[in-house]
Amino acid sequence: MFLFITLEEAKLYLKVDGTDEDELIIGFIIAAEEICENIIRYSLSNFETIPKTIKQAGLFVISQFYELRE
Question: What percent of the chain shows pLDDT beyond 90?
Answer without folding.
Answer: 94
